[in-house]
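pasting tRNA threonylcarbamoyladenosine biosynthesis protein TsaE for the record, 159 residues
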Amino acid sequence: MNSESVETTQKLAKTLAQIVTPGTTILLHGDLGAGKTTFTQGFARALGIKRPVKSPTFTLVREYQTPDFMLYHLDVYRLGEEGGADDLGLAEYFNASSVSLVEWSEYIQADLPSDVLNVTLTRTDTYDKIDQRKIEVTATGSHSQQILNQLEQTYGLDN
Ligand SMILES: Nc1ncnc2c1ncn2[C@@H]1O[C@H](COP(=O)(O)OP(=O)(O)OP(=O)(O)O)[C@@H](O)[C@H]1O
Ligand SMILES: [Mg+2]
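structre below
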């Protein structure tokens, strides 16, 4: 789908937040400034989180309690500067009773579960349309496919 504003991106995030169930891992892909954290903010707000949602700075993970599950926001960009990592114990965040959103997941490949929802944000902005983004969502397993099917039913992704 195409997003022409922060609000549209966050509306999709909100719709997804209302569909996810514990055990869902969402990998957010896209360049610096594509909108991964912006997406996460819309997602967290829809789950009633009032604390400001921003990327972790001193740690790799920020944790939020929602009524139904723990929400983890991982941003492991820093690991890229060290050539990646695969034994930090991050796998514990991807479990059946919580939901996680991950920025720069390519740096923790070994810790990731196989069934994930991929959300890819691409800047498609031009000089007169600076807020344009393309957002693609794909699933890699049966749990994430179920979530994606529901997302497509509630939110036409083809536009
Ligand atoms: N349609 C849009 N969707 C999302 N963000 C948008 C959109 N249009 C403009 N923006 C702006 O783009 C920026 C996205 O920044 P954000 O921090 O979310 O990116 P990021 O992908 O998390 O980058 P980083 O890899 O540095 O963490 C924000 O300043 C936001 O206001
Ligand atoms: Mg970010």
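The chain is about 25% helix and 25% strand.
The pocket of magnesium ion (ligand 2) is lined by residues 36-37, 55, 75, 103 (CB under 6 Å).
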